[in-house]
Each structure stands twice: as C-alpha cells, then as structure tokens.
Amino acid sequence: MSAAPHILVIDDEPQILRALRTILGERKFRVSTASRGEEGLALAAAQPPDVIILDLGLPDISGLEVCARLREWSQVPIIVLSAREGELDKVAALDRGADDYLTKPFGIEELQARLRVALRHSAQAQGPRSTVVTAGPLRIDLAAHAVTRDGAEVKLTATEFRLLAYLAGNAGRVLTHQSILSHVWGDPQMDQVEYLRVYMRQLRKKLEADPSQPLYLLTEPGVGYRFMADA
Amino acid sequence: MSAASLRLSLAGLRWALGLLACALATGVLVLARDQLTTPTVAVLYLVPVGLSASLWGLLAGVVASVSAFLFFNFFFFPPYFTLQVHAPQDILDLVVFLGVAIFVSQVVGRARASQAAAQAREREAVQLHELGMALARLSTEAGIAQVLAESLHAGLAAAGVEVAVWPKGNEAGQLVRAPAEAAPGTAPQFVVPLLTPRGELGEVRIWRTARLEANEQRLLQTFVGQGSLALEQARTQQAAVRTQVLEESDRLKSALLSSVSHELRTPLASIQAAVTSLRSGAVDWAAPARQDLLAMVEEEVVHLNRLVGNLLDMSRIEAGALKPQRQWNILADIVEGTLTRLRHAAEQHQITVDVPDDLPLVPVDHVLLDQVLTNLVGNSLKYAPAGTTIHIRARRQDERTLAVQVRNQGPPVPAEHLDHIFDKFYRVRAADRVTGTGLGLSICKGIVEAHGGRIWAENQPDGFALNFTLPLEWEGHPAPRVPLEMEA
Q: CATH no. for residue B401?
C-alpha cells in the first residue's frame, strides 16, 4: 500500500466534510470529498480510494444505491454513516455490500478504529489470508477447525464452529443477522434470528471470561454481531 | 318464495275470499230456505258482505256484494236457478239489495282502511322512536350507518340496504349493509342522498323490487332525515374532540419548547464558554484547565445528543410512527448489553441482575427495549443515592406475560405522583435540579405500550420500583424452542 491511505468521504453536510478533511488530514490520510452520490461514484472510479466513508442521506441518489453501484465493480471497503434510529437503513446498506457503519454523531476514536479494520481488510484482499485469528486468550485456526483458549482446547459443536469461523474470518466487521444466518445455516431463506441468539449465547459461555460482558463476540443491537480480534 | 311476495299474492286473493264467503252463506241459506222469507235472506246476505269488507278490505266487500246479489237472484228469486227475473218488484228489490250491500261494504271497508292507516302510523312512530333512541346512543359514524341500514331494512322489508358515508378530511368513509352479506350484484332500485345543510354526507341504497307505498316513502324520508342529522352531529362532535386534542397538544408543545430551549441552552452555554476561552489563548496549552474544558465540551455534546435523541423518540411515539422491529430475543442478552454500556455511569452504584437463563425468548425490538432499560436504570442512577444497590429482576408472570422490575433504594415517590411520572415533562419536585428532559419515562411508556405491555411505578418497603410487562407471544405464537446440538 502507498504511504498515505486514500479516503473518499461522500456526504452532503459541508461541516462534516470540513471536519473529516481536517481531522483525517492531520492523521496522515489523503482525503477527497464529494457532496453528491454521482460525484462520489465518479471520483471513486477516477482515483480508486482505499476506503469510502458514505453518508446514507444524499441529495441526488440514495446512499444505498451508491453502495450497490460501487459493488458492481469495486471491493473497496465502505463505511456507512447513518442516523441513530436508522437500524433498518444500516442493515440494508450492509446487505448491499457496505462493510461497516458509524452512527452520527461519532467520536474520532470510533472512526479511526473502523478505518483501521477497513484498511486491514482492503490489504488482506490483496495478499494471502491468514487462517489463524487471535483475540486475547483465544486462538482460532480456521483451516484446522481448532479453537483454544489460553492454550486449552475448546470443544465446539459443528454449528458453533461455523458461526465462530464466519465471525472471526470477518474480524472487526459487523455482520448482519441475515448474512450470518444464510452463511452459517447455509439457507438463504433462513430468517430465524432466535437460532443465532441461542448459539451466540452458547459461544460466549464457552469463549468469554465474563459472558455477560463480552470482549470479543459483540452484539450490534438491531443489526447483527461483530468479532473483535487483536489488532 | 319470500315473505314479501307471499304477502303480495295474498292481497291479490282477497277478493276471492269475498266470493267464497258469499258462496258459503248461500249454501247455508239454501239449506234453510223453507224457514226463511226473502227479506230475511236479504238481511242475512249482508253478513258475509260486511265480514268481507271488514276482514279483507273494500274490494273484497264489493266482490261479496256483487256475488251476494247474483247468488240471491239465482237461488231465491223465481224463476229459480236462472239469473232471469220476471216481476218488476223483484228487480227493484234486487237493485236495492245491491245498493245497500255495496254501501255497507264501503262504510265497513273505509273504517277498516282508516284503522289500518292508524295502525301503520303507530308502527311508523314506534320505529322512528326506536331509531331515534338507537341513534342517540351512538356517536360513531359506523354505528349510525349500521343502525340506519338495519332500521330501513326492517322498516321497508327490503331485500338489502346499504348506507355509504363519504370520506371527509381525516375521517374514513363508511359502507355498511343490512343484512351483512355482500350486496346484490344488481344496481339498487332506490338511492337516497343523506343530505344536511352542509352538503351531502353519503347515500342510502335500497334493493326492493316492489314500489314504495306513500307511507313507506314517508318512512324512508324520515329515517334518512334522522340518519343525516345524527351523522352531522357525530361529525360536529368529532371536530370538537379534535379541536380539544389539538389545543392539548399545543399546550404540550409550548411546554416542550420551553423545556427544550432551557435544556439546550445550558450545555450550549458551557460549550461556548469553553471553546471561546480555548481559542482566545487565555488558557495555556499545557494547563490541566485545558483538559478540563475539553472534557466538559465532550460531556455536554454527549448530553445534547441524548437530548435530541429523546426528542426524536418522543415525536415518533406521538406521531404513532414507532413500529417495533420485533425479533425473538434473549432478555438476558439485552440487559447485559445495556449494563455494559452504562458501566461508567453506574460506577457509584451496585447493580444486581436476576434474569433466569431458562426464561423463554421474548418478541421485542432489541434497540427499543435496550432504551427502556437504559432509561429505567438511568432513572434509578439519578434518584437513588450513591453506594446503594439497583436490582434488575425478570420473571415469567404467567403463560403469556413476562414481568421486568428495576428496583432501587432511592426515596419513595408520593402516591399521588405515581401515575403521573410517565407523563411528559412531569417532575415530582418542581424545583428538581436533576438534569434531563422529563421525557425518559414517557418514552419508556411509549415503547412498552407499542410492544403491547404495561408500565407502572410503585413504592417498596426499602425503595422505589419501576415495573413493566411484555407479551411472550408474537402474532399468537409462543416463543420458539431452539434445539441444541451435541459437541463433536
């Protein structure tokens, strides 16, 4: 990857663009901005960015459409900005190919954390993928189907392992209920979130030191789940 | 054959009854003819004539008169068993008899007709009175339309009656039928508009093949008039209620605006003071004061964000736009998530959680329920003294209900306030300097009720408790059970 990661911000609020340009510029990112969807798409094609930050409410075309059209030709990570009560919008954006979301207003630490995950994914997409994910005391070997905690083997059922493997393989990213259900249960029509709830709870009991305050298997209320691996 | 057409054919047969009565009388008189003189027979023939007129109406009377005249001539005037008459005196007798018979039947028939008319009017008056009583009890358009349709259906012996009320403003239109089954495919025979001085409110459609008699037309007019009047009154009443609601919401909006301006200004004032002093250079870049000011700005921004969020939630609840995105959830997951986020705010308190692992799944919107718990626990954090314990407890109340309680060791709330603390902007103590919008608990109420639950507050021997219930069924289905698999 070249020295300064290139971030494209698509948002129609001039103050947000101004703030992000200043803040991200300070942190050695190269920032370009667009205030309309079409303009953003054109910019993304002309100068492919490393990450796109996309507001869902744009004046010309919806952020969801921008997502879908980007995904026709690009795998660049997309972080969606959305309003607080917009769980359905977030889910829709994630299902259309967005990688992550941030709820407005957000702190800069949060944004940086999301950017780090996104940049790592865009780097991984180019290089060979590691098959071992570590998170604190957990070590998940995706190829060998082996999970250890503090070196001791953790016994998982087949479904529990598939669930953990899907989350860990996408560490740092939020995965929607629907995407998890269809990947792990192998049925695109599967919509019984209760299965996910029960299996997530089982996983936490086996993997988390304090299952009631999970550090690695995080819930994104109304949206899905996220696995936090070591940076 | 329907009741109406049966009645119709009976009316057509009435005259035949007059004929039959005379034939019977003739039979009796012929058997007794040796004991009877001709004048006696003439008088006795008036009996079936009078009876026919009084029982079956004028036409039957006249038919009876003429047939009595013919029978009389045939059987009792020489030459017998012919309709010929020889003696001029006999002709005169017979003509006089016919005249008297017709006169009698007219007198009797008219008396019967006026009695029938009086009875009909009485029936009409009773029906009208009943309609009036029924309408007076109603204030909904649907109810009025229904009563009107049923009354017309019964009163006019119609095959079907439809009452249509046109939609107006926010009011949806109405379409009711009597009897309730689908309208006949044909066009109605009669359509009468529901008219009021302020225009046409709708129309009445009637399916009835027979034409309307004068009295039935009168009945129809009166009923439709009464119905229109009742509809008009209902509309006026609804408008009055709406006005009242608008006034109330106006009052609440003013309260909201004054509360909000105050609540918004306070953090804005702090932020402005902090930022201007940071920019002025009056505060040394390295000084701890700088960190303090920045921390203050951040706190106030978080507070402002929460405030705006509360206002948005409240307006969604008020607008009826709060539609829970229900999913089957594990309550313990939600509670744990809430408490994890409140960890910092709750540093001064202990929180215990008693949510059994074997509770059934609950059909709730995760985000909204999280907000209810956040507000309820937040309320306890605000009012219960530092160092005390907050208990969160969930139990299955019955087959279909889950009960959740957030209990603290804070001061009791006077009984008269208990029902009101879920009202918007309600403060138990006017001089309460606790920050907030006065919206937190009313948002909880809105969310719990949108889920079909109930929320209430109660004082406990050692503190104060906020309770709410949630249905365990979703669209009539109990919680699903998820089969667990064995480890490999």
A: 3.30.565.10
